[in-house]
Amino acid sequence: MSDSSGVSNQEPSLPSGDVPLFGVLAEYSTPQQLLAASRVVRDAGYTRWDTYTPFPVHGIDGAMGIRPTILPWIVLGAGLTGVAAGVALQWATNAFDYRWIVSGKPFWSIPANIPITFELMVLFSALTALVGMLVLNGLPHPSHPLDLKQRFLRVTDDKFFLVIQADDPSFKLEMARELLAGTSPVVVETVDEDRVTSDRLPRPLVLGLMLLVVAAAVPFGLAAKARASTSREPRFHVVPDMDFQPKMKADRANPLFDDQRATRAQVDGTVAAGELHENTAFWTGRVDGVLVTSFPEESPTSEAAVTRGRERFGVYCAPCHGLVGRGDGMVSKRAELLAEGTWTPPSDLQQDYIRTMPVGQLFETITNGVRTMPAYGPQIPAADRWNIVLYVRALQRSRATSSSDLPASQRDSLK
Amino acid sequence: MTLLTAVNPYQGAPKGDNPYARITDNVARIAEAERPPVGWYIAFAISTSLLAMFFANIGYLVWNGIGVWGNNIPVAWAFGIVNFVFWVGIGHAGTLISAILYLLRQGWRTSINRFAEAMTIFAVMCAGVFPGIHIGRPWLPYWMLPIPNQMQMWPQFRSPLEWDIFAVGTYATVSLLFWYMGMMPDLATFRDRSRTPIRKFAYGLFAMGWRGSSRQWHRYEKAYLLLAALATPLVLSVHSVVSFDFATSQLPGWHTTIFPPYFVAGAIFGGFAMVTTLAVPSRQFFGLKRIISLDHIELMNKVILATGMMVGYAYGMEFFVAWYSGNEYEQFTFVNRAFGNYAWAYWTMIFCNVVTPQVFWMKRMRRNLWVTFAVGVLVNIGMWFERFVIIVTSLTRDFLPSSWGNFRPTIVDYMTLAGSFGLFFTLFLLFCRYLPMVAMAEVKLSLPNSHEH
Q: How are beta strands A286-287 and A21-28 bridged, if at all?
């Protein structure tokens, strides 16, 4: 773009009569002279004129009559937009669309959102300050008639210029020349419109930009195609992370085996160490398929066993069966209160048929469950299950006794 | 230095028949010389070698995973975050000089602001690398941005780490805008002095057709003032937010309300030290002694002394608060910091940051270039150790003695740290060679006869 502005630094070779006039240029060597000249031109009533300086000459705004720019108001608007964007972004993402649960804090509380709101306010304002300055100044401005003046190149170095443009309503060439000649300039010259520099963009630049645009569209095109079509191919993994692992998961097919199962069954007759369980009375409550009626040798009855059984009963059984086994535990009470019609009440363990069950059957019921009662075998070790059976027996005994069962010495204390 | 300057084209009186032209020539001849002196090539070769080492180590890290670094539980944050905070801190002086000193109408800033701003941008670039490569899976940093994604999740905006993204991102953007906008008129100067079409095109492209119109200068100055006014609270907010990464955690040694001002003071301190470290050799080598004068060096040394005292006060106040809080974990942490397993790091920090700047009470020392350079280097070392002390010693000894452990950096840690200096100096040397090192228009404005009397 800009190299077109600088194709030629020479004075235009065309005869001046063929080229319209851009304006009259005066050069000064100090800012003080420029300021004085500016006041003269301002007071002469010109509107289409400007001064050009290597640095911002202070006081020139007043000398030229430049009105304050509206840029600060635009930036204020951008800052407020930034605040709104910051609040909206954080509210929409964290309090509305995807509610983050953090330590029971409210979903929306301003203090934690201030830093980002502030940063976005600054970001929006700063971008607007620069872009707004460029737009209001008409930049970028690739070529200009003044670029054709060799002496004007020093405007960014050490010289000061004043230009009255020919499109000013009150412009008369001789009058403007005379006015400027009276302001102690180094030189006064006419400036022609630029008829030398091409305003077309260089062809390689245009081609390059077009190529870039096309290339930039390719990834978007591929993404759009992928979204609009289906594929049997697996997802493309740029970085595989841990997506592909050389291992067989349970219940997957494995072509290495005849039965195609990844999970291998145990060989028939396999017994894990320590799990032979030869004593079926202790492990299943049966001997040769018949329920046992007495406690097995491994779990003899004792006061310690009853105490342990009561503690385990309280943990596993009482929630449904109640503390004394009447089928009135908290869970059962609540289920009946809800009256949803799907609840099978737990058995009252004080019923006669349970009272007369062989201990092996009580053990088996705990181990495998019954009706809606789940199996507790996997949760409670066998010895503890026997202790619970013992405690259930003790509970049943406590509810089916009379004062004659007490020793005579204690019988009187009940009266 | 004398051997190299014998063939240095940057020395000697600048050409020109008036002060403005002499300033232009003094700055522009650096970029216009046929080729720079051999010293520049030596420095550039060293920097690019370090830069290559930086990229190689990052590649090795990405390929092998974060385990090639020494950080591990309990010290999960180590060199990566130390280097991040160190570089971000250095990146504060530039905008401070540009923005705050501009608002305070300190004319002397004009001679150093351009390359301090450049230093800021390069330091923030170095800083930006570290969180990116520290996250374990460096190909997923976009998870930190609020972009709609296949996980249907959004970032957690209550996290200080998320604030960091916005603070450092905004800071990098605004610093770049500020730097670029300040450079536009000077790029136009370079464009107008160009003798080859390529230079004219390149500088002309970025100068955007700036011709110094007073109507444009009016809006330009207003925009510059607005950017300065915006950058001032921004520069204070950025290191405050960085300190929130630590202050909002519950770790003794991090959980302190003093952190935001303490970090900001430390950042200005370290940033100014980096500016003097670079300015002293640069003004000599690039022949800018007339523009960056001894008075400027002395003023910067005064800022270093003042901010050094603030940092020293913060070190003391941390101990006071630990004692005053009556919290035994807090007290243990600080006693451990000074006398425990990393006492050597703590006392290195105290020596570099609190003791050495005291020489600047003497005017003779403030104006001595060797002393200025040495203190600048020592303060930079001290400020690196400050972050090391805060981050590492607090983590090695946490609440549960059974999980105590030490941190041992690996060779990759060291090479990555050294490599980040390669990135910084490569960019800085390119900047010196091709861009206006001094804000010419602003220096011209600050000349006494640029104003009506």
A: unpaired
